[in-house]
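Internal tracking record. Fields below are filled automatically when a chain is submitted to the structure queue. Please do not edit lines marked as system-generated. If the sequence contains nonstandard residues, flag them in the REMARKS field before resubmitting.
Queue: standard
Priority: normal
Entity type: single polypeptide chain
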Amino acid sequence: MSYQDHIIEMGQLVKSKAGAWDGIDPSAVARMRLQNRFKTGLEIARYTADIMRRDMAAYDADPTQYTQSLGCWHGFIGQQKMISIKKHFKSTDRRYLYLSGWMVAALRSEFGPLPDQSMHEKTTVPALIEELYTFLRQADARELGGMFRELDAARKAGDTAKEEQLVEAIDSYETHVVPIIADIDAGFGNAEATYLLSKKMIEAGACCIQIENQVSDEKQCGHQDGKVTVPHEDFLAKIRAVRYAFLELGVDNGVIVARTDSLGAGLTKQIAVSNEPGDLGDKYNSFLDCEEITPSELKNGDVILNRNGKLLRPKRLPSNLFQFRSGTGAERCVLDSITALQNGADLLWIETEKPHIEQIAGMMDKVREVFPNAKLVYNNSPSFNWTLNFRQQVYDAWEKAGKDLAQYDRAKLMSVDYDGTALAIEADEKIRTFQADAAKRAGIFHHLITLPTYHTAALSTDNLAKEYFGSQGMLGYVLGVQRQEIRQGIACVRHQNMSGSDIGDDHKEYFAGEAALKAGGVHNTMNQFA
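SYSTEM-GENERATED OUTPUT FOLLOWS
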């Protein structure tokens, strides 16, 4: 409904109460309604699921239309990110939020900082989704509140053209609410636990849930050692559990990202059930590191596989885990990906140890032989040393091309001494175009950085502490923070406004009229930043 339609509808409702509601201003109700477009998390989930589906179709038609996100560990961080995007690019189109399980563990657990091993309270994940959307909705309310104030000023000044322009802008307003890709880790338990947590996440607003094929009780960060995967059937049960949660709650367009950690996972806790040669369990077991034995070589407690009449003993470690054959990771990733898409996943995530387009593309080419429109969500991880990786990639390409590399030491390419060299400049350009190039070559629909705001918070705090507690004193804050906020038009320089003070003043006026005691008067120091 348009702004005017809301006013008309509310006017009729107030009039129907025979004077009892005459203290209610229909225009104020219309404004409050528009400032609170989404009433529930499920409304958000349905709305954002449609956005993702539309973006996925657009990418299929044109791979330059890839999407991006940054991981955000607090509602304020997500809010400021989307405010900045609207300020700089005038639209939130193809920009999402990412909710990282790593950052939830490290920053939001009541136990304190934890490693990314699913030890944090699972309820913190839906709680953060709800928090992110609370802050995004408040960003809408704040921005629209400012537009309504401008509208009142235009009317008071008799500026009809400005009034019409503002009404049109209000009616076509683009919300800060965007899709969140939410990390459910390995499901925090069995399939039933995954289903229950998925429901909470969806009810909080999640339209997209990312789940990985590690075991829940041995889950590790994707960039650490010791990762243990589960047989396909176990993982597929969890994918179905997530889908059931979406369907039960009426989010039929919900998006599931199936993540495989097989590239770096050399262990499994279980031998898959196999009923006949070539079935899915048999394929999983075929990657196990086994030795052929005879009946006389059997030992107490041995686990034995029968394959084509041969007795095979899988290599079992003291931890009671079984080991995969070395060098099978990429092949397992391909099988994981195809199997996930065959069983209801919408997008893939292949966790890699380095950002190398051809490595990613090599696996995706094989997946796309079966599913031509297979698409990846890719982790542009801060766990990668991007500078060193790309300088080494350029070094290797130059070496292959026969270029003179006498001035470079491949092992020391991270050194600042190389920053201005031709090799470093070419590497930086490859980093700059990585997302566009990988979207075109390797089927990457969505690029995200998992932990960027963890690092930016640490970096900015370090810079401020160095200056403020050093010789610069208060100038360290003013020069490095406040003056930059003013010069760059950072919204939260007016922190009272950002926290909702002006919204509260509007409400006070709606509720109490001329008797309202408002905070935004002439003596409010925030006026220094008007």
